[in-house]
Design a protein that fits this description.
Blueprint: H1 4-8, H2 12-22, H3 32-74, H4 80-100, H5 104-109, E1 119-124, E2 129-135, H6 138-148, E3 156-166, E4 172-181, E5 188-192, E6 199-207, E7 213-218, E8 222-223, H7 243-249, H8 260-270, H9 285-290, E9 299-305, E10 311-314, E11 317-319, E12 326-332, E13 337-345, E14 352-360
Antiparallel strand pairs: 1-2, 2-5, 3-4, 3-6, 6-7, 6-8, 9-12, 10-11, 10-13, 13-14
Helix pairs in contact: 2-3
Length: about 375
């Protein structure tokens, strides 16, 4: 509060400057006593306005509190903004849980088929890639959640790839190679193997902190071929071209490997019958002879060499030309005569060399020869 004594203790110049800053009208023509009276009057007016403003603010605060209290008694205690945030958080948690659930994909595409047990298979695609398929039951995911406990929120669905090698005896040694994160709503995944010519096995499960892995299912052992071996990578995306070769490379004919799941997956993907050489050993001799059949088919490998920059087609199909100019392509060999043009074209298309292959296949099936079983023993 400004007092008269305080103002009188100042000089006329100082009072004039204060009056100017306070917006006192006519300050420049006032004497010292007039400046003191004008400043005192201005100070009393400001005090009254401040008190009135404080009273009004207090009344408004009290009104707001009363309104808020009344609203809290009649509506939900969580306001609309907090409710929207809570819904978003809950929705995001549900989405994360779905992405983590490895059993959801099975329910989505399995139809009425009931998944009774966990399974996983690996299929060789070419020298650098393999494809994993899996089916996981809901019970296994629930058990995993209980076993993982407090670390479940940070667990991530993943595939762990192992390199399988022999320790010099009959036992095999599995060494962790890499972890591949996957989406919970997927049922298969492509894996880039780090080194061709090796043997691999994979496991599906949850990756935890400190490189721990909670495995739900384990796959068969595959033997990855050398790059460009038998042209396997010419049509690597379509395993139906030569499904039996992929079946063998994926361990289908290995008596030491359980191939039932692999056989089921291969038949499902290619819609062609798959059978391991040891699959029917339980059949009796009578049932074997009664159902004996031998279906033979053939294909042809056309290969050659040209300039590394040239392009080559064989019967209209493009053959991949390697850096040394060599090329190879497997083609069908139908049971008839056919003419197969092999066309090499230079890069600018100004030169073209055509070679004609005339090929005939004539297949004959002889009558079934049956012999009486030897009962002497």
């Amino acid at each position: 509060m400004v007092t008269a004594s305080t103002l009188k203790s100042r000089t006329s110049r100082e009072l004039a400057q204060i009056a100017k800053s306070e917006g006192v009208r006519g300050w420049h023509s006032m004497r010292k006593a007039e400046l003191v009276q004008a400043l005192l009057k201005n100070s009393r007016r400001d005090s009254v306005q401040a008190a009135h403003s404080k009273t009004t603010a207090s009344a408004m605060d009290a009104s707001k509190k009363s309104l808020k209290s009344s609203k809290s008694r009649s509506t939900n205690p969580v306001n609309s903004v907090d409710a929207r945030i809570a819904r978003k958080i809950r929705s995001e948690r549900e989405r994360q849980e779905k992405l983590k659930d490895l059993s959801l994909s099975v329910a989505a595409d399995a139809g009425s088929r009931v998944i009774k047990r966990d399974r996983m298979v690996l299929i060789v695609r070419d020298a650098w890639w393999c494809q994993a398929y899996w089916e996981i039951t809901t019970t296994s995911v629930q058990r995993a959640r209980v076993a993982i406990g407090q670390h479940w929120h940070s667990a991530k669905p993943a595939i762990r790839l192992f390199e399988v090698s022999s320790d010099g005896n009959t036992n095999s040694v599995e060494q962790q190679v890499l972890d591949v994160p996957v989406c919970g709503d997927a049922r298969n995944w492509f894996i880039n193997v780090p080194d061709p010519t090796k043997s691999y096995r994979a496991g599906i499960g949850y990756l935890l902190k400190d490189d721990q892995f909670h495995m739900l299912a384990k796959s068969n052992v595959i033997n990855v071929p050398e790059p460009n071996a038998c042209g396997i990578d010419d049509n690597w995306a379509d395993i139906s071209v030569d499904p039996h070769q992929f079946f063998v490379l994926s361990g289908g004919n290995d008596p030491a490997v359980e191939s039932g799941e692999l056989q089921s997956i291969m038949q499902e993907r290619t819609r062609q019958p798959m059978s391991a050489s040891f699959a029917d050993q339980s059949h009796s001799a009578e049932s074997f002879h009664a159902s004996l059949s031998c279906n033979v088919d053939a294909e042809m490998l056309v290969y050659g060499s040209t300039h590394p920059s040239a392009s080559v087609t064989i019967g209209g199909q493009t053959a991949r030309v390697q850096s040394d100019g060599s090329f190879a392509l497997r083609v069908n060999l139908p049971d008839r005569r056919q003419v197969l043009p092999v066309v090499a074209t230079n890069r600018d298309g100004t030169q073209q060399q055509t070679t004609i292959l005339a090929i005939e296949r004539n297949t004959k099936k002889l009558d079934l020869l049956q012999r009486e079983p030897d009962c002497s023993s």
